[in-house]
Amino acid sequence: MTRFLVRRFALALVTLFLLSILVFVASQLLPGNIGRNVLGPFASENDVNMLNHQLGVDQPIYVQYIQWVGRLLHGNLGNSLQYKVPVVELLGPSLVNSLKLAGVAFLLVVPLSILGGVVAALRRGTVIDRAITLTGLSLTAVPEFISAIVLILIFGLLLNWLPVTAAAPEDAGFFTQLRYLLLPGMALVMVLFGYIARMARAGTIEALNSDYTRTAYLKGLDTRTVIFRHILRNSLLPTIAVIATQMGYLIGGLVVIEKLFNYNGIGQRIYTAALNKDFTMLQSGVLVVGLVYLIATLVADILYSLLNPRIRYAGVE
Amino acid sequence: MSTVAPAVVRRSEKQIARRETMQQLLRSKTLLVGLAIIAFWVFCAIFGFKIAPHDPLAQSSSPLSGLSGAHPFGTDQLGRDVFSRVLAGARDILIVAPLATLLGIAGGTIVGLITGYFRGRVDDVVSRIVDAVLALPLIVIAVTVLVALGHSALTVIVVIGLVFTPIVSRTVRAAVLAERQLDYVSAARLSGERPPYIMFVEILPNVMGPIIVEATVRLGYAIFAVAGLTFLGFGLSPPSPDWALQISENYQLLNAGTYWWTVLFPAIAIVSLVVAINLVADGLARVLGR
Questions:
Q1: Which pLDDT band, with edges at 50, 70 and 90, does A317 fall under?
Q2: Which of A106, A129, A286, B276 holds its CA 20 to 30 A away from the CA of B84?
Q3: Does residue A8 belong to the interface with chain B, where contact is any CB pair within 8 Å?
């Protein structure tokens, strides 16, 4: 178990290292002279060179990379080229906002899709199964901004139940904020439901066909007990894995959803940074997104191994 | 003569197997429904501009007029006929998304064959890079690169194709790993065939099933991605009557009033296309096996 954890952790670090190179190289693609971009066309050549020197962008690329990582390790993400304030000050609150939205989506989608998957598995081959599977499959394929617009049309404008922006008023309490996050959260749910429900369905079917389920029935347990005590636990395992891999989508999907609902999250930040060629902001934003994904998959892997006795005891013998 | 006979028998066996697969495919209702919808949109992509009752790019009535006999889907804020624009809107996405998919499938097949066949260090290194790429959402990578390189149909195709490459390579690699254990691969190796020949001539035909299924699934994602990028302003550009572009141009009107027709009909068009592609993918996966 310890060995598994150490290996998994080392793997995450290697991926993080490659990710940082990737992000660094990608942000180097942004064209043009950075000092010139910041100071504008009328600044003197001298000033431009001085700023470039201050920013360190006149040095060889590998030196820049090492300096950049060094600063990152000290928690220094640099200053936003566009807003002239430390990136952390802008990115921090945005990340918190995005996590709120992702959290709402997550809390909605997990129980819903697991319920859907388990019901489909128990009614395997019936109309209910086909309906759940095909609906999930179709919703997953529909771009999130379209699901979102349909939701806005129905719940925001036709029924007038929910606000059509995500940004709650400044001093809004918890429940008001929640109300504002429901529509964008539901849009993300529609994309993710299909994946998770499909995995939950497959896991449940596997558990239903297993020897231990047959044994449980044969020793006279009633269906309810078998489902809750024996099947559900095993059908949820693969579901955890797929939830983790979808975290990446969830965060990427936020770019579109946050723009549509005018919500000040990390997706919106990355989007504006890209538009304005604010490369320090963009670098940090993209890196944070990658980091969140890596942490999520790491946690999921650990959770998975803790819940799965086949892995938990693997290192013991 | 005796050397020819077995070859003939094998070919006819193959033909029978192929015919059986075709019959199974034709029996799948989800597949046929999906194909019919896709065929309809392909037809519109080719002839949309000709069969449209009005010019999709020109004003044909007063802006934002509601549904009527002349304009069954109403008109948009520039007075263009929404029905005509929906018919013509299939064209660009049905050029960009399939080309991006093709690029990703080609790249992913090559990488997957190489990593699956050689394994060892090449595989380790490539797998780690794949992990790193997968840690970033497609939309985030695409936005960054498209800002740097400037967005055109071509850059969108290249970016999506490149992001798809590692994802496809995983599927292909898994299929190749299963194949390389089989006797025919060892036989080819023992008879002195070179690795490129074994990979592309011996193994590739036998992993086409998973690749075809993956291609269909990727096509769905490609449309998803192109539409999302277009909505953000990094994909297709005006004056294309592209569906996602129509939505992005008109969705802000939703808050102002009830001009829902400018957005709802292109939305239905995209939904019908992606759902159809997923029905086909589902049908293919059932028959060709995963």
A1: very low
A2: B276
A3: no
B36 occurs within a structural domain: no
ipTM for the complex shown:
0.76
Is A32 touching B (CB cutoff 8 A)?
no
Q: Find, among A117, A244, A131, A260, the residue nearest to A187 by Cα.
A: A260
A-B CB pairs within 8 A amount to: 135
Q: What is the 3-state secondary structure (H, E, C) of chain A?
A: CHHHHHHHHHHHHHHHHHHHHHHHHHHHCCCCCHHHHHHCCCCCHHHHHHHHHHHCCCCCHHHHHHHHHHHHHCCCCCECCCCCCEHHHHHHHHHHHHHHHHHHHHHHHHHHHHHHHHHHHHCCCCHHHHHHHHHHHHHHHCCHHHHHHHHHHHHHHHCCCCCCCCCCCCCCCHHHHHHHHHHHHHHHHHHHHHHHHHHHHHHHHHHHCCHHHHHHHHCCCCHHHHHHHHHHHHHHHHHHHHHHHHHHHHHHHHHHHHHHCCCCCHHHHHHHHHHCCCHHHHHHHHHHHHHHHHHHHHHHHHHHHHHCHHHHCCCCC
CB atoms < 10 A from the CB of A270, how many?
30
Distance CA B34, CA A2 (A): 49
In-domain check, residue B28: no
| C-beta atoms of B224 and A141 within 8 A | yes
Compute the mean pLDDT over every residue in chain A, rounded to the nearest whole number: 79
Number of domains in chain B: 1
Distance from CA of A251 to the nearest CA of B (A): 7
The domain containing residue B90 runs over which residues?
A: 82-288
Is B274 in Cβ contact with A141 (below 8 Å)? yes
pLDDT at B104: 94
Residues of A with Cβ-Cβ distance to B147 under 8 angstroms? 30, 274-275, 277
In angstroms, the CA A317 to CA B247 distance is 60
Whether the CB-CB separation of A119 and A167 falls below 8 Å is answered with: no
Q: Give domain status of residue B30, yes or no.
A: no
Q: Which residues of A touch B219 (CB under 8 A)?
A: none
Indicate which CATH number applies to the domain containing B171.
Answer: 1.10.3720.10
* B95 touches A: beta carbon within 8 Å: no
What's the average model confidence in pLDDT over B178-183?
A: 85
Q: Is the pLDDT of residue A266 over 80?
A: yes
In Å, how far is B124's CA from the nearest CA of chain A?
11
User: Taking a C-beta distance cutoff of 8 angstroms, is the pair B244, A256 a contact?
Assistant: no
* Residue B48 falls inside a structural domain: no
Q: Which residue of B has its CA nearest to A158?
A: B258
Using a CB–CB cutoff of 8 Å, tell me whether A142 touches chain B.
Answer: yes
pLDDT digits over A102-160, tens only? 888 888 888 888 889 888 988 888 888 888 888 888 888 888 888 888 888 888 777 77
A150 touches chain B (CB under 8 A): yes
